[in-house]
Amino acid sequence: MKFEEIDLGPDIMSGLADVNYTELTELQEEVLPAVLEGKDALVKAEPGSDKIASFVIPALEMIDDREEKESASVLVLTPNPEESQQIDELVWAMGYHAQIESASVDMDTEPEEQEEALKSSVQVITGNPGPLADITKKLRFVFRDVKLVVIDATDSMVELGLQSKLKGILRRVLNEHQTIIYTGEMNDEVKKFAKHYLEDPEVIGLDSSTKMLSEPPKVDSNLSHGYIYVPNRMKITTLMAHIEETPTDNCVIFTASKRGTDRLYRTLRKQNLKATSLHGKLSDEKRAQRFANFTNGDVQYLLVADIPAAELDIQRVTQVINYDVPANPDEYRYRADLVGSGKASRVVSLVSKQDRSDINELESTLKQAPKELNLPKKVKEKLKERKKKKKKGKKKSKHKKKKRHNNGRNKRKKKKKDDLELPRPSYDKLSGGRKGQAKKDQKSGVIGLIKELFS
């Protein structure tokens, strides 16, 4: 699509021509119509000029339509100073013919410049939450005429712990306004933020994420869901035994990490089971292909890590297995929502020692709590074998200990015996010996005679 096909003012079109913008990118084709219609939006997008232009162009068009342009109409919040300055430059270049000005309140500008930027009559203010929150608080500054707020790279803001700064700035926007939130990844904190600040938003770049902004579904009362306490160092064994006992048409297995999906993938392939994996680091193309392989029925098992269940556009699967128990009860509900109700459908969680607290929270939070299930037969058999080996090992160790103990006792006995059988010293040649003493006494005259008589 070309920009000429969109209803933009002549001054904005001249600005686009100045920077050689002729055709919309795929992201811009999705974002521009929604923003131009005045809708709130939640957009997943990577950093770059493509993303920046997707909100700068409709923002400039909105300002150009306004009769009064003496105060800020657009507020853009971004986490790093380089991007704030880049946005500022693009606004100046594209808005030159429409006489739209902007200012950047970022970490690289001096406090005096930051104050001047807020006091000046620019139409677009871009900035980093830290310095912007501090300077607005110092000046007791409020935004009275802002019509559009853009929050960029919200996931990075959350990682940097800037939520309180963001909230402080947004409290200073006094009038009703349109909000666009951009994020590189969707997580619980971004979801909470979006739910609070967006109203009936257009969701772009996130599969089925409209579910994420609404209340999580309740667990179907007809759904069979439970958990298995996994013996120590037997998690994969338990999983494979459970899969063997409960064959299904299709199954989604959730793990806590990409490493976990890779490990399970190798295990399933060794058993000649068709599987594929999804994780947050996959490119959009690979992710779409693998997802299609599962939904088309080419593979039976879908291994998922680092992707919320609400993002998976799956109608019904026969079984969901939580290889790692979700810490968030809402995530458990979304996973359960992937499964159709009925006798053949189920959700099973494998609970290891470190998962006990998570399953306890689920039991206390969910109205229909999961029930404890029996261990698969193969796991029980292996446990018996393990116990037998342990008993044999204990017997052997006891026998060895006893043998060592007996050997030690025998050695001590032998030593005592040897001590008893040592040759007695001869006193014949000792001066104090019996014979030697006798000879000495004989020489002593009367004393020797008396001793001889008594002896």
Keywords:
455 residues, alpha/beta, Rossmann fold, 2 domains, seven-stranded parallel beta sheet, 17 helices, 47% helix, elongated
Q: How much helical structure, as a percent, in the residues?
A: 40-55%
Number of strands: 14
Total tally of structural domains: 2
CATH architecture of the largest domain, please?
3-Layer(aba) Sandwich
Structural class, from secondary structure content?
alpha/beta
Radius of gyration, CA atoms, in whole angstroms: 40 Å
| Low-pLDDT stretches | 427-443
Describe the main β-sheet briefly. Answer: 7 strands, parallel
Quaternary structure annotation: single chain
Could you give the distance between the termini? Answer: 137 Å
Percent range for β-strand residues: 5-15%
CATH fold group of the largest domain? Rossmann fold
Strand neighbour order, sheet with most strands = 3-4-2-5-6-1-7
Q: Kindly report the name of the CATH homologous superfamily of the largest domain.
A: P-loop containing nucleotide triphosphate hydrolases
Instruction: Please identify the top-level CATH class of the largest domain.
Output: Alpha Beta
Mean residue pLDDT: 84
**Shape assignment:** elongated
Protein name: DEAD/DEAH box helicase
Region (Disordered): 368-455
InterPro entries: DEAD/DEAH_box_helicase_dom, DEAD/DEAH_RhlB, DEAD_box_RNA_helicase, Helicase_ATP-bd, Helicase_C-like, P-loop_NTPase, RNA_helicase_DEAD_Q_motif
Domain DEAD-box RNA helicase Q: 1-29
